[in-house]
Amino acid sequence: MSESDEIIPATHHQEGFHTPSANVYISYDPANPPAHPGANWTRFVCISDTHSRTFGVPSGDVLLHSGDLSRLGREDDIRVTIEWLHSLDHGVKIIIAGNHDLPLHEEWYEDSYYGFHNMKESSTAIRNLVDSKANRDRGLIYLQDGRYAFSTKEGGREWSVYGSPWQPYFGGWAFNYLPEEACDHVSAIPEVDILLTHGPPHKVLDKTFSNVHAGCPALLAHLSKMRRPPLLHVFGHIHEARGAVRYPWLQGEEDQDSSNAECTTPLGKETIMVNAANQPLGRQAIGQGGQRIPCGGPGFQPVIVDLLDSAMRLEM
Ligand SMILES: [Zn+2]
Question: Could you tell me the distance, in angstroms and rounded to a whole number, from the CA of residue 218 to the centre of ligand 1?
Answer without folding.
Answer: 21
